[in-house]
Amino acid sequence: MDISRMPPPPFLYAHDLSNVLKKKNSTRTNKSLVFYLEACDSGSNFDGLLPKGMNIYATTSTKPDELDWATYCPGDPQNPPPQRISHIDIHNPQTETLEQQYELIKVRTLNNNLDCSSHVMQYDDIGLSQANPSFYIGANSTDTFVDQSEDYLWSPSQTINQRDADLSRKLFKES
């Protein structure tokens, strides 16, 4: 697909993202980069497209040819933030590695339901996954984190195909 469908158009195409990341890398303004993309077909933006040695660790919410699933459904009593961001709220980014974060989010996203789940993927410089998220997002030692066990797996009350999310929102407004 080589596209990320994020409403409204224009869409983000893989070659455009790849060109931006290559240009950013050529400026040498950062030693390494962690990138998370959550969108339908998001894996297609990284699957074999970046040259080696760019020091980019990318995770995506889907495989290259897979739908993402909306869990921000109108009328839900609690709309959770995206998986990666909400994970940081409950785990200390100074002690957990990006790899540990990836493994927990992978299980959490599958949600024991292969009919309406996606496969979180890792791309490019996987070695960077041994770093702590705080290296990339910063962390204030005075912040307090609610340490949750690895058993903490949020479950959505409903899940719909991401491409139907706008329709769901409109139907909810009319009801």
UniProtKB/TrEMBL annotation:
<dbReference type="GO" id="GO:0051603">
    <property type="term" value="P:proteolysis involved in protein catabolic process"/>
</dbReference>
<dbReference type="GO" id="GO:0005773">
    <property type="term" value="C:vacuole"/>
</dbReference>
<protein>
    <submittedName>
        <fullName>Vacuolar-processing enzyme</fullName>
    </submittedName>
</protein>
<dbReference type="InterPro" id="IPR001096">
    <property type="entry name" value="Peptidase_C13"/>
</dbReference>
<dbReference type="Pfam" id="PF01650">
    <property type="entry name" value="Peptidase_C13"/>
</dbReference>
<dbReference type="GO" id="GO:0006624">
    <property type="term" value="P:vacuolar protein processing"/>
</dbReference>
<comment type="similarity">
    <text>Belongs to the peptidase C13 family.</text>
</comment>
<dbReference type="GO" id="GO:0004197">
    <property type="term" value="F:cysteine-type endopeptidase activity"/>
</dbReference>
